[in-house]
Specification:
Blueprint lengths: L7 E7 L2 E8 L4 E5 L7 H12 L3 E5 L11 H12 L15 H16 L4 E6 L5 H5 L5 E7 L17 H13 L4 E6 L7 H11 L3 E6 L28 H17 L1
Parallel strand pairs: 3-4, 3-5, 5-6, 6-7, 7-8
Antiparallel strand pairs: 1-2, 2-4
């Protein structure tokens, strides 16, 4: 908790469900949805980098204990309840998880608070695919899916964890409004099958920018076979590093679409 004292904390309620949201920065809005196990120091640092670049970051406390470092124990304690939660529908295909409605309302409220052309949304890991689901909202102009891992299980490899109706709505918005969705993954990440990115390419065409970072054997940057978190745990703030290149690509679209 002490490591997050530079964030303001406010509750946000929608349809009877209230959660805390951490706020930082000024400028156009970016909604950052945390990865498992929650708002880790790495996720908080990612939010700080965005705030330092002139964005208002809304970081909802969606699960886990905020401020707790990433570890096998914290991962397990968070992941097990999430897998059986009716809010997230972790194994469901072609479904809208109930938490989506709350997140969409927060994205719209963020736009109302910050003004401008719209907001960016970044989902990571468990929340990765929700960035695309939120793009149904007119306020969302840049959905970023970093290692989108839902639905879980071997039978959902090409599923996008959203209803066909929501997918069609997003497909109508992105190219017609000159927008695109960004996807980030490591090539060896079994939690984010290649089939999922192939499906995004098929459905969205040129409105999808897929960034796939080599994490195979003997890859030039020394990524391990378990490399997963492009913008947090594996991120290196070094020019020419592939995670930095992915981050810079995201910022380019934020600058173009939000300012």
């Amino acid at each position: 908790m002490d490591a997050l004292e530079d964030f303001a904390v406010e509750p946000f309620a929608h349809e009877g469900r209230s959660r805390d949201v951490l706020w930082k920065g000024e400028g156009p809005g970016v909604l950052v949805m945390t990865e498992v196990p929650g708002i880790t120091p790495e996720v908080a640092d990612f939010a700080r980098r965005l705030a330092d670049r002139g964005y208002t970051v809304a970081l909802p406390d969606l699960f886990g204990r905020r401020g707790v470092p990433l570890s096998p124990v914290s991962m397990l304690r968070t992941l097990v309840p999430l897998c059986v939660s009716r809010e997230w529908l972790a194994f469901a295909r072609q479904k809208r998880a109930p938490v989506t409605n709350w997140l969409r309302a927060l994205a719209t409220a963020l736009h109302g608070r910050c003004g401008g052309r719209g907001v960016g949304v970044v989902g990571m890991c468990f929340t990765g695919g929700f960035a695309l689901a939120l793009a149904v909202e007119p306020a969302v102009r840049v959905p970023v899916m970093s290692q989108p891992s839902l639905p879980l299980g071997p039978f959902g490899a090409s599923d996008l964890h959203m209803t066909p109706e929501d997918l069609e709505a997003v497909k109508g918005r992105l190219p017609n409004e000159g927008l695109c969705a960004i996807g980030l993954r490591f090539t060896g990440d079994i939690a984010v099958p290649r089939a999922r990115f192939a499906r995004l390419e098929e459905e969205l065409g040129e409105a999808f920018i897929g960034v796939e970072i080599d994490s195979g054997p003997d890859n030039p940057h020394g990524f391990g076979r378990m490399a997963h978190s492009v913008l947090t745990a594996e991120f290196r703030d070094e020019p020419g590093h592939p995670t930095r290149d992915a981050y810079d690509l995201m910022l380019e679209h934020f600058e173009r679409q939000l300012r």
